[in-house]
Amino acid sequence: MFKTSEMKLISETCSLFCFSGxxxxxxxxxxxxxxxxxxxxxxxxxxxxxYILQRINHEVFNDPVALxxxxxxxxxxxxxxxxxxxxxxxxxxLIETKDGKSFTLDGNxxxxxxxxxxxEGCSLEFPENKNQAxxxxxxxxxxxxxxxxxxxxxxVETIPDFHNPEIRYQQFITAMQKDRVGRVDQVSDLITFVKxxxxxxxxxxxxxFPRRVVHNDTKFxxxxxxxxxxxxxxxxxxDTVMPxxxxxxxxxxxxxxxxxxxxxxxxxxxxxxxxxxxxxxVQGYLKTAGNMLSFREIDALPSAPLVITYExxxxxxxxxxxGDHYFKVKNERHNLDRSRAQFKxxxxxxxxxxxxxEIHQKIVERF
Length: 367
Prior knowledge:
Number of strands: 11
CATH architecture of the largest domain: Alpha-Beta Complex
Order of helices and strands: HEEEHEEEEHHHEEEEHHHHHH
Distance between the termini: 52 Å
Number of domains: 2
Strand content: 5-15%
Number of helices: 11
Structural class: alpha+beta
Helix content: 40-55%
CATH class of the largest domain: Alpha Beta
């Protein structure tokens, strides 16, 4: 339930957008770690329409205007690509404000946007079968490929050095040394784990690979699958779409889809890497992105999941040491649970590293 003041603010914000009908209801929606997302239902006589309303976290994204410019350029370009006219694929569509803008600013300094709701799509935390993993990889690969010819100028970096494991490692070291909230003594085992694997922070340097337009947050739940056919129909959560390295996108999808548990699993016995899902992801990704990729990018694919899993574990642990100011948390141990789960997944990947390379090589030889 919303407080009266919050409901009033949301209602006033909704009234600034050009959606059909009148607001009938609004509820919180999804489980994103950064922005606040709501599902709006509106009534127009006997018809009901639904929309997504989002409050952009301007503490994380400190230039929301540039972010929304990126958002508009990316979605406009994707709509022009012929591939999105086939197979029922969708592109996120912004609802303009009454003064013709892609966002609005409320009296409290919050930035808001509204999107059409894609009713035929569903979002899952992890794949239920290999085909769903294949579809997600195919869709993210197609997304990268379609944006590879995005006209100049380059997109703005909404979060500079977002996927830079070297910097993330240094941020972790700084947080550990400062120990602002007195939590270092509780995670000595994780600190040892991280330091023993510091080579992963430099294993994939973005500067050594082609700079492309990438999604940067390719969690499995950022793909909408068609409720009936299971086909991937839309890539969502575009706030971090910016120049970067495709390997981070590939690795992050593997991290979330080829894992036997949720991202914040507390029972670490349930956290394991799934090589059969990894195989489907490699197949789907190369199907759509393969012709765009350089040999060096293709060759580095098996290393990418380990690097990104290490990086996400670092980010969760750093946020825990700094007092949980970046990711939304349910309790004071939430980021700690997340980091432990990521590091357990990394261990499982390490144990199956040879299998990952063999799977990758087999698919590449057929490609």
